[in-house]
Design a protein that fits this description.
Layout (H helix, E strand, L loop, with lengths): L1 H27 L5 E17 L19 E15 L4 E10 L13 E3 L9 E3 L14 E13 L2 E9 L12 H5 L8 H4 L5 E10 L6 E8 L13 E10 L4 E16 L8 E15 L3 E20 L4 E18 L5 E14 L1 H6 L3 E6 L8 E12 L5 E14 L25 E14 L2
Antiparallel strand pairs: 1-2, 1-19, 2-3, 3-6, 4-5, 6-7, 7-8, 8-9, 9-10, 10-11, 11-12, 12-13, 13-14, 13-16, 14-15, 15-17, 17-18, 18-19
Length: about 450
C-alpha cells in the first residue's frame, strides 16, 4: 500500500511539473520578441561674445575657444536599439558621439601627440576633449550595452553590462535630476559638468519598496571608467534612494558614491603611503507640475589626498580638499504645446581646505590630481532661453550660456612664510572672467 501511495505521489508530482511547464509555455507563447531603433541629436549655431582671459574651466565646452568665434556644431548624436528578448529579459545598446571640440579646432590646445606607424609626416595633435579622431573627424563609441533581468525578485530588476549609473537618470523613479531638468541639450547637470560617472560597466539593482512605485532604490558596483576598460584594481560604488510625494509631483532623491583612486601608494617623505579616494553626496528636490517645474540640486565631493603639494623641503605631500555645488532651475509652458521657457543658475566652489594648503609655510607649489576639481577656481553658471516646439520631438531653442570664473585665493599668492607659491595652471590671478555664448540650439528625437 505504501509503495502504491509513493508511486501515485511521484506520478502526481511529475504531472504537476509537466502541467506547470505547459502553462508557462502557453503564457509565454503570447510573447513575441521585438526591438526598437531610436535616437536623438542636438547641436547649435553658436557665437562666443565673451571670453575668460585666463581660459579657465578645463574641459568645459567653450574653454579656449577664441572670442568672436562662430560655429555650427553637433554636441551629441545618439543611435540606440532596445530589444525585448523575452518577458523577463531585455537588452539595451547605444552608440554615442559627443563633444566635438578637439586640439587644432578653433584654437584648442593639444596635450598629447601621436606619430602614425610608418609615417614621415611628423606628429598629429590629439584632442584633449570629445569623441574626435586624430584627423579631427567626429566618431561614435559604445556608450551602453547591457541586459536587464526583470523582476528578479518582487519589484526589482538586475542589470549587467555597461549601463547608466544612478547619478543622473534611470534610477527607476522617472524623476532623477537630469530627467526633471529635461534640457541636456542646453547643458549637463551640475555634477555631470564635473564629469561624475553617468555610465559604467558593472552590475546594478533597481527596485521599488512599494507596489505603487512611490519609494525606491538603486545600488550599483562598477569599474568607474565609463566606456573605457578597467585600468586599476578598484571599483566604484553607487547608491540612491528616492521618494515621491503629493501625487508624485514632488521628488526627493539622495545619492552617494565612493571610489578609490590610489591606496597605499609609496610616497617619498614623512607622511607614509598615499591614500587617495573621492566620495560624493548629492541631494535633489523638485516639484514637477504640468505647467511649471522647479528643482534644486546640492552636492559635496570630498577628495582625500587629491592635491599634490611640493614642499620647500623637497618632499611631496598629499592634501584633502572638498568641493560644493548648488544648482537651481525652473522651466514651464508659455503656451500648452508650442512654447516653453527654461532658466538655471549654478554656484560651484571647489576651495574647501585650499587656504590651509596654500598658506602653509612649507608650500612651494600645488596641483590637483583630478582636473575637474582643480581647487583654485570658483565658477558661476547661468543659462536661460525659449523652447519652441513646432511639432512633437522637435525643439528649436534660442538661449544664452554663461560661465564666470574667479580665483579662490588671495591674488598675491603668498603663504604664511611670505613666500610666493604656484598653482597648477596659474589661476591665482584675481581676474574675473566670463565665457558668454549666444546659441540657437536644435534638438530632435526619433523612434520614441
Amino acid at each position: 500500500m505504501r509503495k502504491t501511495f509513493t508511486k501515485i505521489s511521484i506520478y502526481c508530482s511529475l504531472f504537476l511539473m509537466v502541467a506547470g511547464s505547459a502553462t508557462a509555455q502557453t503564457a509565454d507563447s503570447t510573447f513575441k520578441p521585438s526591438g526598437k531603433l531610436w535616437g536623438y541629436a542636438f547641436g547649435d549655431y553658436a557665437y562666443k561674445g565673451g571670453s575668460d582671459e585666463a581660459n579657465r574651466g578645463g574641459s568645459n565646452q567653450y574653454t579656449n575657444v577664441p572670442l568672436n568665434s562662430n560655429v555650427f556644431q553637433w554636441r551629441r548624436i545618439y543611435l540606440g536599439y532596445d530589444y525585448n528578448i523575452s518577458a523577463k529579459f531585455s537588452a539595451e545598446f547605444l552608440l554615442a558621439a559627443e563633444d566635438d571640440w578637439a586640439a587644432g579646432v578653433l584654437g584648442q590646445k593639444a596635450n598629447a601627440t601621436s606619430t602614425p606607424s610608418g609615417s614621415t609626416a611628423g606628429t598629429l595633435a590629439l584632442g584633449n576633449n570629445g569623441d574626435v579622431l586624430v584627423n579631427n573627424k567626429f566618431a561614435p563609441y559604445v556608450k551602453l550595452a547591457n541586459i536587464r533581468w526583470k523582476n528578479i525578485y518582487k519589484n526589482a530588476d538586475l542589470i549587467f553590462g555597461q549601463t547608466a549609473t544612478p547619478t543622473f537618470a534611470k534610477n527607476g523613479s522617472g524623476m532623477a535630476s537630469e530627467e526633471v531638468w529635461g534640457y541636456r541639450a542646453i547643458e549637463r547637470t551640475i555634477t555631470d559638468t564635473r564629469r561624475t560617472t553617468s555610465y559604467d560597466f558593472g552590475a546594478c539593482l533597481q527596485g521599488k519598496f512599494d507596489n505603487k512605485g512611490n519609494f525606491g532604490y538603486v545600488v550599483m558596483v562598477g569599474n568607474g571608467q565609463g566606456a573605457k576598460p578597467e585600468s586599476d584594481m578598484f571599483k566604484s560604488f553607487y547608491g540612491d534612494v528616492w521618494a515621491k510625494f503629493a501625487n508624485r509631483k514632488i521628488i526627493v532623491d539622495l545619492y552617494q558614491d565612493y571610489t578609490k583612486q590610489a591606496w597605499g601608494t609609496y610616497v617619498k617623505g614623512f607622511n607614509g603611503p598615499r591614500y587617495f579616494d573621492r566620495n560624493l553626496t548629492k541631494l535633489f528636490v523638485a516639484y514637477a507640475g504640468k505647467k511649471f517645474t522647479a528643482g534644486a540640486e546640492v552636492f559635496m565631493n570630498t577628495l582625500m589626498g587629491d592635491v599634490a603639494v611640493t614642499g620647500k623641503d623637497g618632499y611631496t605631500y598629499y592634501r584633502t580638499t572638498s568641493a560644493m555645488g548648488v544648482s537651481v532651475f525652473a522651466k514651464g509652458r508659455i503656451t500648452p504645446e508650442k512654447l516653453g521657457f527654461f532658466a538655471r543658475f549654478d554656484n560651484y566652489d571647489p576651495t574647501g581646505n585650499l587656504s590651509n594648503i596654500a598658506s602653509d609655510k612649507n608650500t612651494k607649489s600645488y596641483s590637483a590630481s583630478t582636473s575637474q576639481y582643480e581647487p583654485t577656481t570658483k565658477e558661476m553658471f547661468a543659462t536661460f532661453g525659449i523652447d519652441y516646439t513646432p511639432i512633437k520631438n522637435v525643439h528649436i531653442m534660442p538661449n544664452i550660456w554663461m560661465n564666470t570664473y574667479n580665483s579662490g585665493l588671495d591674488v598675491t599668492g603668498k603663504n604664511s612664510a611670505n613666500t610666493t607659491y604656484a598653482s597648477m595652471n596659474g589661476n591665482v590671478n584675481g581676474i574675473k572672467g566670463t565665457d558668454a555664448v549666444y546659441r540657437l540650439t536644435f534638438y530632435y528625437i526619433y523612434g520614441k
